[in-house]
Amino acid sequence: MAMVERKTLSRRVFLAANTLLLILIAFVCFAPFLHVFMASISDPALVEANHSIILWPLGKVSPKAYELVFKNDNIFIGYRNTLFYVIVGTVLSAFLSLLAGYVMSRKRCRWRNGFAFFITFTMMFHAGMIPTFIMVKNYGLVNTRWAVILPTAVSVYNTIIMRTSIAAVPDSLEESAHIDGAGDWVILFRIIFPLVKSTFAVIVLFYAVSKWNSWFEAMIYLTQRRDLYPLQLFLREILVQAKAASSADSDVVLYETLQKYATIIVSTLPILCVYPFVQKYFVQGVMIGSVKG
Amino acid sequence: MKNVSVSAPAVQKKTFADRVRLEIRTSGALYIMALPVILYYLLFRYIPMFGTVMAFQKFNIAKGIFGSPWIGFDNFITFFNSYYFVRLLRNTVLISLTDLVFNFPAPIIFALLLNEVNNRWFKKTVQTISYMPYFVSIVVLCGLVIDFCQAGGVISNAFSLLFGESVNLMSKPEYFRTIFVGSNIWQGLGYGSIVYIAALTSVDQELYEAAVIDGAGRWKQTIHITIPSIMPTIIILLILRMGSILDVGYEKVMLLYNPATYETADVISTFVYRKGFVDYDYSYSTAVGLFNSVINLCLLTLTNYVSRRAGEISLF
Amino acid sequence: MKAKRILTALLAAGLVVSALASCNQNSGTESNSAAESQTQANTSGETAEVSTAEGETVTQLTEIPLPIVEEKITLSYWFPWDATVSNVVTNNNEVMSVQKMEEITNIHIDYIHPTIGQEKELFSVLLSSGDLPDMMYLANGVEYPGGIVTGISDGMFLNINDLVNQYAPNFSKWRQYDEVHQKETISDDGYILGFPMMNDIPEGANLGLCVRQDYLDQLGMEAPHTLDEVHDVLSAAKNELGLASPLLLTSNGVFYDSALLSAFGVGREWYQNDGTVFFGPMQEGYKEYLTMMNQWYNEGLIDPNFVSNAFTDAPTNDLLVSDDVMMTETYWGRVVDAMVYNGVTQNEDFWLTPISAPVQKEGDTVGIRMYNSPIMSQTVLTKDCSDPVVATMWLDYQYTEDAMILNNYGVEGETFYYDDNGDFQFTDLIMNNPDGYNTTDANRLYIRRNGSGWIKWERQQLTNPTVAHKDEVWAYDIWSADGTEWVVPAVTMNTEESAEYQSLYADIKTYVEESTVGMIMGTMPLDQFDAYVEQLKAMGIERVIEIEQTALDRYYAR
């Protein structure tokens, strides 16, 4: 932030307190992740005995739990599929939300409020699992990749966020472009888009995370295509063990708990790495004030 | 006969075809842009809504939606007559409102605090770390919460000064809401603040410069520049939030509640889940869902209306 | 208004499309009887006049021919499984014993495994899609709404009575093995339910109370048998050893097998005395139990965190090995030094001794314990079964001795051998797998284990460390010594009863759980017990008892 600041005493105190508070918040937010990671490389018996948060490895450090997780070929199949779903799905969804957000923000579009109501209505009225399944089946999508991507292609929340951001761009810009003879496509991509990059980055992130974490559509629609399962679905199977079967019937498996933790790390680490890349779009300095009057 | 020359009038009456052509020429692109989204909602959201009629039937999976017998409002009456109806409704609303009051502003405040940080590296790091809990599986997170709040746990021990001994906070109905909303904040603070952080980047810097010249301190700048700039975002998200007032999801409540806290923790979704009706009596769960949806819609529309009258910012 | 017109158009479109959609669903109810003339099975074998379990006389194949069909055919089988298997294979067809079964019978089974943990949703979705596989194994909590019989009358499942009578000699013989085998494989009105996963003798009590022997030794005390002795042991654990949670109780306040409660003559939920059914939580004995537990809770003998421990049968490993626990319930495979053997605890002295359900005074007996019926999950033939006769014969073959050996122990010489006593023993392929698999994984890789057919629960013992101590202390013997006279068998209800039962019972169950836990912890005073019973009656418990009683009467009349 390149601005002149008078550092009064109260300001200094505030900054110091703020910094402390933020550090505390950061620690509290980091702790559960640290716990999961440290537990996953610890000694299993010590982890079972421990009843509080684990901030450093207990006992001998060992990657055994990860070996067990990766021993299963499913993980690699899952990664490959998820990558497809996330990339294709995010591009499609972000693009659609951008278009719809643009349309809804145009004041000359008389049906924009109706459009907004049209999509918001679906946030509250859900179709239900069985009717949706019947329709998706009728569309011929069951047991194909598209059954995972299409039914959740547009999020009302993200689209509205996009609309709000686009609407904040001053009308004068659109008007001057209009005068220059530009059509809607040009206005959207040449003028509006560069100014709303940070929000677009946000919805790209939201869509990517949502698709990375999703498993329900794959579970319902890919009944006979385990080879198309996303990562989360395989991991969920590991995490959700049918209690009766595992406790009464099988032998005690030493690394059961650790495997669950390793599973979480394996499934969240990649998506965590995405954030720093979008972060660079949350940067000050976009000169909106370039058009006066 | 005199020629009354009727020359071409200055304003031509436009035919319908003309109007259509004009509309296509000026806004054709808008229609094309909106089309895929409209199609999506029609195909995947509206058409399947036919299934909502199940709420008025005794749904039999073999007979399907058009073969199952109609029972009118019986499903709703069963729901309203349940011994626990009032309690479930009360708990759902109270938990949701508490979450609204505390969990809605928290990310905003967090974003504002981050905004005050000068050191870019520190800001980025805290931001990244803050959204990590969102990714830790809800099962693990609730496991940690339970560990901390049980007798002998970190938080219980801290509170032992009040009770004289470390008690199981998870068994006290009066604390459930606090624990539930608290863990919501823990998990959602960072991730929820992203929208506001992005919105803050588009605040016009020149406004700040002018304010400094006018002698306004940081606090005044925040009140008069920063917050009003992100107000549209806040209002819109608030309206959307009101549209999910009765949606307290069962998964997290289930992980945190137990028979000792049913009094305040049992919500509509968990009760329906326990009843097993989610799995097998779709009519009943559809009816309950419909009830939820109607209430949510009313609240959202009301909030939207109030907001539009008060400040011109509205969803639709 | 424009919006209204649009909405109306949408609704109309929706109705049209859904009308089309419902055509895809199961609209026709095809004939339930077998299409014998079209079967590919080799049915030319010898037949005989036999008598069924119900006393009818039918003409039946004497044995299943191998291979069952001349040309290999495929049957699809919807088969819920669990993560111990999915961890090592991606489909049952990779398991060695399954491949062998295919060779022998010449029938390829296309196993369809629903995602673990989501079986119920997937089941509903499958039913609503209208395209069913040939066979479905209703396990992992999956049930047809209203019961299998409703499924038959709805036209989703086939009525297999004729098929079984003609083509299933092995299963028919097993149905006559004893009363339980006959009664639990058939519905009240005489429909054979399906082909179950079946034991010859029931498993016995695989869950029960156990106490920390190492702590008992430290205290110089004996394993308790009466309630007073239990109290003394727990008190000593608290006061002398300083344990924070001597009794690790379930989160709903009662043990799954009604231990401790049974000392007062009542069961945790349903129990019977000579055919009359009772609801445990209403009885005077339940009040006595709550009074005792409340007192123990106030003395600090019960785990203060018991409500939030989130288990209703047995605790998770970390709770089980906790140093603060003196007594709890768990499964047979985790007692004695199993937890040490598996490395879950590093405390070498850790030892859990199983004990039978305590009584009020010496000489009393209890009539309720963990009870497992020998008849378990059913496989049904669906309306879309392409060849019901072949399916019947294949499923019937699973009840033969050869199939039992293959499905439970694998192949002689490869996965098992006979020891000097003639008993089954696993080979090193399972016990010390050369590829590094532990015994559980090796077992799953080579042997199919569960599913419809003759299953031996004893085979689990071959890989469990508690068997090493079988001569000194054997959990099954100790826990099974308690009687089962009060146990209510698995009854079935028809659709209306079931719906009424469900809608009344949900509220009742919530109220019982809350009150039980409240009275133990003292947040609900014990003198409110009578008001609590009155409230139960107001909620309709007497009608629920009536329904259960009628169902029980019908069970005995089968």
Instruction: Calculate the mean pLDDT score of chain A and round it.
Output: 85
Distance between the termini of chain C: 64 Å
The strand order across the widest sheet of chain C is 4-3-5-12-6-15
List the quaternary state of the chains. heterotrimer
What is the name of the CATH architecture of the largest domain in chain A?
Orthogonal Bundle
Q: Name the shape of chain A in a single word.
A: flat
Low-confidence stretches of chain C: 19-35
Binned strand content of chain C: 5-15%
Please give the domain count of chain A: 2
Q: For the record, what is the CATH homologous superfamily label of the largest domain in chain C? A: Periplasmic binding protein-like II
CATH class term of the largest domain in chain A: Mainly Alpha
The major sheet of chain C is characterized as: 6 strands, mixed
Count of the domains of chain C: 2
| Biggest sheet statistics of chain A | none
What percent of residues of chain A adopt helix (DSSP H or I)? 55-70%
Would you spell out the secondary-structure blueprint of this structure?
The complex is a heterotrimer of chains A (293), B (316) and C (558).
Chain A: H1 9-40, H2 44-49, H3 64-71, H4 74-105, H5 112-124, H6 129-138, H7 146-149, H8 156-167, H9 171-179, H10 184-195, H11 197-213, H12 216-221, H13 231-239, H14 243-249, H15 256-272, H16 274-279
Chain B: H1 16-46, H2 74-81, H3 85-103, H4 105-115, H5 120-130, H6 138-149, H7 154-163, H8 173-200, H9 205-213, H10 218-242, H11 250-256, H12 262-265, H13 268-274, H14 277-280, H15 282-311
Helix pairs in contact in B: 2-15, 3-8, 4-8, 5-8, 8-10, 10-15, 11-13
Chain C: H1 2-24, E1 47-51, E2 57-61, E3 73-78, H2 83-86, H3 96-105, E4 107-112, H4 119-129, E5 135-138, H5 148-153, H6 161-167, H7 169-175, H8 179-183, E6 195-198, E7 207-212, H9 213-219, H10 227-239, E8 270-273, E9 276-279, H11 284-298, H12 317-320, E10 327-331, H13 338-341, E11 352-354, E12 375-381, H14 388-397, H15 401-408, E13 416-418, E14 424-426, H16 428-431, H17 439-446, E15 453-454, H18 475-480, H19 495-521, H20 529-538, H21 541-556
Helix pairs in contact in C: 11-19, 19-21
